[in-house]
Amino acid sequence: MERESMAAEGTTWKRTTCYECDANCAFDVAVDGAGRAVDLSGPDCPRGAAQLERQYHPERLLQPLRRVGPRGSDRFEPISWDEALDTIAARLAEIRERHGAEQAAFFAGYTKEARPQLQRLAHAFGSPNYLTESGCCFSATLAAEKLTLGYRLKSASLLEAEQTRCLLVWSTNPPASVVPFEEHHAAQRREGRAMVVVDPRRTRTAEAADIHLQIRPGTDGALALAFHHVIFENGWADEAFLKRWALGWNSLRDYAREFPPERVARICGVDAGAIRRAAELYATSGPAQIALSPTATVQHSNGFQNHRAIILLAATTGNLDIPGGNRFFLDKVRPKPIDLFRETIDDLPPRLGEETYPIWTRYWPAGQSMLLPDAILTGEPQPIRGLFAIGINASMWPNSGRMLAALEALEFFACSDFFLTETAKRADIVLPAATNLEREALVAYPGCQFRGEVRYRHSVLEPRGEARPDAQVALDLGVRLGMAERFWHGDLAASWAEAAEGLAPEVRRQAYEDPDGAMVFADALDEEAFEGERLYEVRGFPTASGKVEFDSQELRAAGYDGLPVYREPAESPASTPELAREHPFVLTSGGRSKYFTHSQQQRFPSLAARDPVPRAQLHPWDAEPLEIADGAPVEVHTPRGAVTFTAEVTDAVKPGVVHCFHGWAGADVNRLTDHAHPDPISGFPPFKSGLCNVAPAGE
Ligand SMILES: Nc1nc2c(c(=O)[nH]1)N[C@H]1C(S)=C(S)[C@@H](COP(=O)(O)OP(=O)(O)OC[C@H]3O[C@@H](n4cnc5c(=O)[nH]c(N)nc54)[C@H](O)[C@@H]3O)O[C@H]1N2
Ligand SMILES: Nc1nc2c(c(=O)[nH]1)N[C@H]1C(S)=C(S)[C@@H](COP(=O)(O)OP(=O)(O)OC[C@H]3O[C@@H](n4cnc5c(=O)[nH]c(N)nc54)[C@H](O)[C@@H]3O)O[C@H]1N2
Ligand SMILES: [Mo]
Predict the structure, then answer these.
(1) Res 524: pLDDT
(2) Where are the domains of the chain?
(3) Among 68, 154, 197, 667, which one has the highest count of C-beta atoms within 10 angstroms of its own C-beta?
(4) Atom number of ligand 1 nearest to Cα 296
(5) Is 469 in the pocket of ligand 2 (CB under 6 A)?
(6) First to last CA, the chain
(7) Best residue among 51, 211, 293 to mutate for probing ligand 1, ranked by most atoms within 8 Å of CB
(8) Residue whose CA is closest, atom 15 of ligand 2?
(9) Binding site membership of 470 for ligand 2 (Cβ less than 6 Å)
(10) Region 65-136+340-435+463-510: CATH code
């Protein structure tokens, strides 16, 4: 319908932000006279366009529930908010009383908005154990980069993209994972720009490349070392930069001698000549940029060091912080922290993970959520008995059946969600969450290189039923736990207003009043960097040594390898040949589909129609001898269990590799993945390199 005729019928368009992924795109929603959203318009994105299917989904949770049947059953009864909140507060307080506050954990899944208030609740309550999805996402690449470079590396930036002469895309496929998808520059073939893609699948991005290195999953470190080998061997390293700004680069050069392309070709399953050509392109056609995933390189038992080996290529070749190379990430939007982390953390007991992953916890202000099943089931490295979670799905964890069992073993478990998921069915109390359209928030988004965006998202709809914003619930619990003063007496807008105090007055005003929010530009020094000065020439590299740490002193001091030493994945044909006899395929998982964010939209009819079944991708050479037909059910099994997917027989996947999509309730690939061999530095699980076998289902 045309906007004018809609207006005549009492429909008004309101500006808001999408929440289907982290991009927080601006969207307009048409709200009719009865307060119902009837249309929306925004960027070309299938998930954004389907938002209203969550809003009005017949299965949406609309009331607080108390479980009356056994854990995992469907038997719940509605209760009032007062009763729900009183119960949660009382049970958490009881755990604190009997066992100590640290035995209650506070968790947020992919949803990020209410994290400041949730973390505040955890720390004000007295627990250090605020945990998030970042235990398996993003934080390990951040820690590896901060520890090695002192900065977070910015990649695939749009701003200077036209200056890049060689793009090395390592483990990411924007057409599935980053707006504007197919239009993303990192997925395009461009005149005058060479392109190399490292991926076990021939993705759309790989199809645009000059060279596709179709790697065996989990061997990325070896491949990166082969690049270093070729670069040093041919004198393509930027020695002037290295001599002035790098620590231990000659040790890495010496170590990389052990990784000639001919040897690495056998490790990674790629052609030695292609490795040489790719390394030459990257090293000699600068400015060159590495486009990285936020997390795919580190979801391996060896991921942290693999990631270091990759990012150090930018240092070896002098492509750090130059236009068209890899810039550093600059925080442009800085709301005032209201999470209490800095104020409290020194006085609180150790966070979950501090005992096990001291380096990771040094760089990440939360506990390591991947340890939650251990903490609940074994009491190691410290016991957890109670859990309050917003947006938790056991299928985020490797060996997710074990996580479900852990949730069942909790003394007390409450969560909020939009739907009564299998995970929520384990909770004692389930709370109905308000959607982004129903809740206000200060949405601060770092945006592109030198510019960030911030806007106050006013709610555009009344919450359906009794749904309530997560951040409001955190405040309500704070109040009920006797901390009204510290929780703004339950006033959600006041909590955001305090966060907004961190913004310059004009930015703040614009964020609240202008429907488009405010653009924030980098500060003066950062703009200087934009003018051509390099940030590290002004500020140095804020690492332990003030240099780029090829050989990390911090890692050494904590008992790890200082160099990015390559180790085989914990499960692989080379490291566990015995296991590989029964499980001859390498299993990787979680390549993104543009129709879903993890487990969230599979129940939306329009998106389920576009991508209807949980797929396991395998090569025809592997499928044919096993008589697995395209579209037929296929059972994938590992030592953890067996799950039935729909076979997608495609030569886009590397022979010998099986790729399963993640997030499907009825076919959860994490039933198969390994919890027992995380990366020793980050604690990240090997979602993307394990072993499996496949068979036609039913045999
Ligand atoms: N549509 C959609 N977009 C999303 C998300 C979503 O759920 N849906 N999730 C968001 C989140 S939380 C994240 S963390 C990001 C993830 O973002 P990305 O990790 O960039 O996700 P993908 O684009 O799928 O790219 C990962 C690629 O890694 C490849 N790969 C698998 N194993 C290996 C390996 O061992 N080595 C190498 N070199 N490559 C490998 C896969 O084949 C895949 O093509 O996406 C974000 N964007
Ligand atoms: N095998 C494998 N496993 C993976 C990955 C992989 O690549 N392979 N990727 C990992 C990565 S990078 C990530 S980020 C995680 C993501 O894993 P999760 O955090 O579990 O992802 P989601 O399915 O997006 O969200 C979990 C739940 O949160 C609910 N939810 C969403 N938004 C809100 C909200 O605003 N409020 C409330 N109360 N609930 C909400 C959803 O309905 C859903 O039930 O998965 C990880 N797991
Ligand atoms: Mo993620």
Answers:
(1) 42
(2) 3-55, 65-136+340-435+463-510, 153-327+535-557, 577-696
(3) 197
(4) 19
(5) no
(6) 53
(7) 293
(8) 396
(9) yes
(10) 3.40.50.740
> Which of 177, 313, 594 to mutate to test ligand 1, by most ligand atoms within 8 A of the CB atom?
177
Q: What is the pLDDT of residues 637-647, one digit of tens each?
A: 999 999 999 99
Give the CATH number of domain 3-55. 2.20.25
Residue 141 CB–ligand 1 contact under 6 Å:
no
pLDDT at 667: 98
What is the token pair recorded at 433? 């969450």
Contact status, residue 113 vs residue 132, Cβ threshold 8 Å: no
| Closest by CA position to 584, among listed 674, 675, 690, 669 | 690
C-beta 421 within 6 A of ligand 2:
yes
Q: How far is the CA of 138 from the centre of ligand 3 (A)?
A: 6
Task: Return the CATH superfamily for domain 153-327+535-557.
Answer: Dimethylsulfoxide Reductase, domain 2 (3.40.228.10)
Q: Is the CB of 133 under 6 A from ligand 2?
A: yes
Q: Among 417, 430, 457, 470, which residue has the most ligand 2 atoms within 8 Å of its CB, making it the best to mutate? A: 417
Query: How far is the C-alpha of 696 from the C-alpha of 699, rounded, in Å?
Result: 6
Q: Which residues pair with 616 in a beta bridge?
A: 647, 660
Angstrom distances, CA of residue 618 to CA of 123, 251, 651: 46, 40, 7
- Whole-number pLDDT of residue 445: 78
At 517 the pLDDT is 84
Q: What is d(CA 642, CA 671) in angstroms, rounded to the nearest whole number?
A: 7
Rounded distance, CA 403 to CA 377, Å? 9
Residue with structure tokens 């982004």? Answer: 436
Smallest CA separation from ligand 2 atom 7, residue: 590
Nearest CA to ligand 1 atom 33: 217
| Other beta carbons within 10 Å of 35 | 9
- Tens digits of residue pLDDT in 537-581: 888 999 999 999 999 999 999 999 999 999 999 999 999 999 999
Nearest CA-CA partner of 615 in 673, 664, 660: 660
Q: Is 176 close to ligand 1, i.e. is its CB under 6 Å away?
A: yes
CB count, 10 Å around CB of 73?
11
Supply the pLDDT for residue 522.
59
Please state the atom number of ligand 1 nearest to the C-alpha of residue 218.
35
Nearest to 675 by CA among 667, 666, 684: 684
Q: In what order do the strands lie in the sheet with 451-457?
A: 441-445, 451-457, 518-521
Nearest to 106 by CA among 130, 89, 133: 130
pLDDT score recorded for residue 447 = 61
Q: What is the DSSP code string of 261-307? A: HHHHHHHHTS-HHHHHHHHHHHHHS-SEEEEE-SSGGGSSTTHHHHH
Task: Give the pLDDT of residue 225.
Answer: 99
Task: Give Cβ neighbours of residue 347 (< 8 Å, ≥ 6 apart).
Answer: none
Q: Which amino acid is at 692?
A: C
Q: Tokens for 683, please give them.
A: 């604690």
Low-confidence residues of the chain, pLDDT below 70?
Answer: 1-2, 4, 7-8, 156-159, 446-451, 521-532, 699
- The class that CATH gives domain 577-696 is mainly beta
Q: Ligand 2: distance of its center to the CA of 40 in Å?
A: 24
Type of residue at 46: P
Ligand 1 proximity of 16 Cβ (cutoff 6 Å): no
